[in-house]
Amino acid sequence: MTSLLLADVRPWGGDAVDVTIVDGVISDLSPTGSGGAADERVDGRGLLALPGFVNAHAHVDKSWWGQKWVSYGGQPTTQGRIAHERAERDKYGIPSVGGAKAVLREFLRHGTTATRTHVDVDLGVGLRGIANVLEAAADLNGAVEVELVAFPQDGVLRRPGVLELLDKAATEGATSIGGLDPATIDRDPVGQLDALFEIAARRGVGIDLHLHDHGDLGAFQYELIAERTIQAGLQGKVNVSHGFALGELEPARRSDLVQLLAEAGMSWTTVAPPTSAPLPFREMRATGVPIGLGTDGIRDLWSPYGDGDLLQIARGFARLHGLRTDEDLTYAIELATTYGAAFVHRDNHGLTVGARADVVLLDAENAPDVLVRAPRREVVVAGGQVVVRDGELQV
User: How many CB atoms lie within 10 A of CB 141?
Assistant: First the structure.
């Protein structure tokens, strides 16, 4: 049995407590000074404590993080970026264990302790990316818990053999299978969705679809997905990533669609890009449509942007949606922490007894202050391990 005491910390900016951690799980929260003996003690110095961040949409297999600068290339379209990535990735050793590990370490540096990551599965790399990410996570002793989506970035039906790879991935570590713009990439939305739902229902996995299409075309595909989710009995297991069209629809149709999403038990993940239309997040919250935040790719062949800091994404979400009140700013932090738990199948993720000990300490007055300043993560505890101390990685 191993124990750790986080002394004098303020959960969510409230009263100071001592947090006792035993074998990687929070076992007690008590008034400061009343915590017992432990194998290791961290002086929290009255720092604000948050649960670990949950990155609900990442691509840890794609990055060139840690290598020399790679200039952006390719055509500025989804298809153009796919083609460019396929032509160039071998040159940069993508995917690799080292590349995935470099990204996961940056996640830890910024306080992310769990992630749902899409991993490319295609005719060029097969399932190698999945094996690489699993090995990278194991090398870090599980400090970042990783949930995998087998992602057919290059298309599904238009690439014969990809469906078989997705089916196999569902037996080799992927908890969900992905899809990509069924209408504009495969040009057969019914065919792609029927094939994906057949695998998901048979293998007992979820579905997480990248949907970039705008306006009515995007909305049409959401309706197809919701209908199939209900028919297959996959409520609670289907997610739409990006889904830009949802914020673009006229209010009556948007409201009807949000109701359908709720009926289907679907969820939504966003990286809150500044040029996108705001999501109807208040309607989604009221009807029970979960929202998760993610970094998407960081420093990859699609874009040079990104540093793995989910707190920056939460702030971007707040700014995109015009959030200003303390309650709303705190909600953005909750999206990045406690509300992200469902996306990695955690029933208990927070500063509560029985939760995995994922704790982030920051020098801030309260949660809104954390959001608008995005201060350095002073200490990060992941599964009971101190992985960041004084802002520096220890793994």
Answer: 12
User: To which residue do tokens 């500063």 refer?
Assistant: 351
What pLDDT score was predicted for residue 76? 84
**Average pLDDT of span 201-211:** 98
The side-by-side arrangement of strands in the sheet containing 145-151 is: 53-58, 112-120, 145-151, 174-180, 206-211, 238-242, 267-270, 291-293
Torsion of CA 271, 275, 280, 282, to 10 degrees: 70
Confidence of residue 75 (pLDDT cuts 50, 70, 90): confident
Strands of the chain (E only): list them: 3-11, 17-22, 25-31, 40-51, 53-58, 112-120, 145-151, 174-180, 206-211, 238-242, 267-270, 291-293, 359-362, 377-382, 385-389, 392-393
What is the pTM (predicted TM-score) of this model?
0.97
Distance CA 101, CA 117 (A): 13
Q: pLDDT digit string (tens) for 20-37?
A: 999 999 999 999 988 788
In terms of Cβ atoms closer than 10 Å to its own Cβ (0-12, 13-18, 19+), residue 211 is buried
CA pair distance 3, 221, nearest whole angstrom: 50
**pLDDT recorded at residue 37:** 86
Q: Are the CB atoms for 222 and 243 separated by under 8 Å?
A: yes
Residue carrying the six token digits 């006229």: 250
